Automatic annotation (TrEMBL):
It comes from the Bacteria. This is Cell division protein ZapE. SUPFAM superfamilies: P-loop containing nucleoside triphosphate hydrolases. Transmembrane segments: none annotated.
Length: 346
């Protein structure tokens, strides 16, 4: 049998540029959610809040009044009809891997409007950075729906900019849908995530209805082991096979981490343009917080593009130090680990 070969490129040699107009045109759901619907959302019957969230969001998508409410601490209580006016925004509060992005994309596809946007928090803040605040408001005004995936609460400046931007859009009729992450089975962090969100967005809080989604990470349901690691001698063949004969990236891990500091995170998606598999050689532990957070942003783009990762060295689920996993960015690192494990098994 003829061995599979692949063209390889080095991401560290790429310096992508992205205009404001290109940023705007890219504000659509990631490819794996091109056809996401409420019907294709995989409900885990062990967690009733998933089915309830799906039903409530389906109603929101078509502008209808939800038939039932479930407060943040109302688990087990009898559902009652809501007679209050429908709020212009919904916030999906829950752990990673419970399908929030799928549901967000389902809202996007179900809303009967021509002008709607779907992007990560960092993509919207990058748009403001590229076009300026006023130009961004003028450009987005009249948009029927704005979906914000992974709303970040750890940067006060960016949070304030986004809150102000969304407030101006809501005042002219735009509806909003947002997600954020809380780690599963962490009662302290998980149960109060919604309050954190509402507090940080201050004057916008009354515009959102929070919907809790419980569950376990679907990526881990069938992946009990850690990230897959390739032997040095098998790496080239594994990478070529994963790329299916197409183009694969092949970089030293430390060199790539250094390179990410010179590319704005909003452009990471262009780093992997036309790539079908990502290769990382000699992975090592990350101890610098800035480097780790840039790697998290890179992992998000790789995962959104559904690219397999092949790596040597330290298992990628062990790449973040124990100190980081105990710190304020714990949620981001746990999400990245979940995605890294899935990508190395893809």
């Amino acid at each position: 049998m003829t061995p599979v070969t692949a063209t390889t490129v080095r991401l560290v040699e790429r310096f992508p540029q992205l205009t404001g107009e290109e940023m705007l045109s890219s504000l659509v759901p990631p490819p794996q959610f091109d056809h996401a619907t409420f019907d294709t959302y995989r409900v885990d019957d062990s967690y009733p809040s998933q089915g309830e969230a799906k039903d409530a969001l389906a109603q929101f998508a078509v502008g209808a009044q939800p038939i039932a409410a479930r407060g943040l601490f109302s688990f087990g209580r009898k559902k009652q009809r809501i007679d209050a006016p429908v709020k212009p925004g919904v916030y999906l509060d829950g752990g990673f891997g419970v399908g929030k992005t799928h549901l967000l994309a389902a809202i996007y596809h179900a809303v009967p409007a021509q002008r709607k946007l779907f992007g990560s928090f960092i993509e919207y803040t990058a748009l403001v950075g590229a076009l300026g605040y006023k130009n961004t408001v003028d450009l987005l005004r009249g948009t029927a729906l704005v979906c914000v995936d992974e709303f970040e609460l750890d940067d006060p400046g960016d949070t304030m900019v986004m809150t102000r931007l969304l407030g101006e859009l809501v005042s002219t009729g735009t509806r909003l849908a947002a997600t954020s992450n809380t780690p599963p089975n962490a009662l302290g962090e998980g149960r109060f995530a919604a309050q954190d969100f509402l507090r940080e967005i201050q004057g916008m809080a009354d515009s959102f209805r929070t919907i809790r989604i419980d569950g376990v990470d679907f990526r881990q349901r069938s992946l009990d082991s850690g990230a897959s690691v390739e032997d040095e001698g098998d790496f080239d063949a594994a990478l070529a096979t994963s790329a299916g004969g197409g183009t694969a990236s092949d970089d030293d891990f430390r060199e790539l981490i250094a390179h990410l500091a010179h590319v704005h995170p909003s452009r990471y998606i262009r780093l992997i343009d036309q790539i079908r598999a990502v290769g990382l050689r000699e992975v090592t532990l990350l101890t610098d917080q800035s480097e780790a957070l840039r790697f998290v942003a890179f992992v998000d783009r790789v995962y959104d593009a559904q690219l397999p990762i092949r790596a040597t060295g330290t298992p990628l689920n062990e790449v973040f130090s124990e100190e980081m996993l105990r710190g304020g960015y714990r949620k981001k690192y746990l999400r990245a680990i979940s995605r890294l494990v899935a990508s190395t098994h893809a």
